Amino acid sequence: MKAIIIGGGIGGIISALVLKHQGFDVELYERAEGNPEIGSAVQFTANVTNIFKRIGLLELVKACGSPVEVRNMREWSTGNIISTNRLGDTIAERELGSPYLVFGRSELLDRLGEQLPDGVAHYGMKCVGVEQDEASVRAIFENGHVAAGDVLIGADGIRSTVRRLVFGEVEPVFSGKVAYRGLIPASELPDFDSYKWIANAWPAPGQFLLQNFAGRETINLSLYRSGQKLEDFDTGNKTAVVTTDEVLGFVEAWEPSAKDWISKSAEYLRWPLFDIEPLKQWAKGRVALLGDAAHATLPFIGQGAGQGAEDASALGDALARLSTDPIAALKLYEEFRLPRATRVQLESRARSNYMMLKDPFAINQRNLQWREASKAITGYFGNSVDHWILNYDVAREFEAHVAKRAGASAA
After folding, report:
1. What are the pLDDT tens digits along the chain (411 aa)?
2. 3-36: b (≥16 Cβ within 10 Å) or e
3. Structural domains of the chain sorted by starting position, each given as residue range(s) with its CATH number in brackets
4. Alpha carbon distance 280, 294 (integer Å)
5. Nearest-CA neighbor of 197 among 219, 224, 222, 221?
6. Residue 23 — left, alpha, or beta (φ > 0 → left; ψ -120 to 50 → alpha)?
7. CA of residue 58 relative to chain centroid, distance
8. d(CA 76, CA 221)
9. What is the DSSP letter of 66?
């Protein structure tokens, strides 16, 4: 079986790696001339790293990922600690069998892309058409090239060309929230080692600051702001570079250590945050969507890239199980993955509001809940409210889904 993948971001590359591991022929096409990832950090919790373990790439991702050990939630006005969660890879591996790691997006994609055999990935290839019939599916490119296969996977992001061509127009939804993302290289922090591997977060009325890592040699800063309007920005819905002074102006009343962190990044990327409404269909004939093309998600539970990786794993298993009927395989993939990815989308929306509450009483109640939960949890991952996300083995759950499906058919 041959798969054509449109989109060379994290979801597309992981899909190619999984499908090659399953023994399929794969061609991947990306419209950018090279690595298309921009931005800051991406995290992989145990539900994702166990996928890399399965395909033999866990040591590679561990080598470029930061094993964040501790995350402190702090009061924005005083810096006092509200709660502390122990997140480190050793805790995650002990409790869930796989590590928790944080990466720089571009570096991660480079390392993963290097694992693909020569000739699999093609860059500078803009897809402009998709055709399918009973025998095959074809991607048509702006330069006249045509790629034919048994299935075509649209992993081309929130503004997916494949989705538009095959499923119709789906407009991204502006969340009213904007991220300001900055990076601090270790070379600019003489005491960088003293920060390993501790992350901090400051929830404030209408804002949320996260200091984390982007790989092993860079600190990542993300300031999220709610109640934003696109018409207030001269670049509209586009990302734009802004000055550090502009970002510092948003936190004038904050405690000193938060402002000090923000001041250390040379500049920031302003990033309006979009998702899409949950879709009811991801597969149509020989074409299926994956990652942000299927379920673009806000970043507030850190599962955007992770859900794309789960998609890739399930896609590979579905195609392997029904290799003589790719259309049925893609419907099985959709049937299995759509409910969970939709739940993550909706939970991310809800969490974005919870993290940036404005009402003082609601803030106090939330902080109290965090404080008490931190005292009660002896091992973060296994007892977390996000247990349904973290303690999830997509391969195991896929097999359970297939068995349940077979049982229902037999009955």
Report:
1. 999 999 999 999 999 999 999 999 999 999 999 776 666 789 998 899 999 999 999 999 999 998 888 889 999 999 999 988 876 656 677 777 888 899 998 899 999 999 999 999 999 999 999 999 999 999 999 999 999 999 999 999 999 999 999 999 999 999 999 999 999 999 999 889 888 889 999 999 999 999 999 989 999 999 999 999 999 999 889 999 999 999 999 999 999 999 999 999 999 999 999 999 999 999 999 999 999 999 999 999 999 999 999 999 999 999 999 999 999 999 999 999 999 999 999 999 999 999 999 999 999 999 998 888 776 554 544 445 677 888 899 999 999 999 998 888 776
2. bbbbbbbbbbbbbbbbbbebebebbbbbbeeebb
3. 2-66+103-171+277-352+382-410 (3.50.50.60)
4. 10
5. 219
6. left
7. 18
8. 15
9. B
Q: How many CB atoms lie within 10 A of CB 236?
A: 10
CB distance 221 to 262 below 8 Å? yes
Comparing CA positions, the residue from 132, 116, 123 lying closest to residue 29 is 123
- Whose tokens are 């290839």? That residue is 125
DSSP 8-state code for residue 277: P
In the chain, the N- to C-terminal Cα span, in Å, equals 32
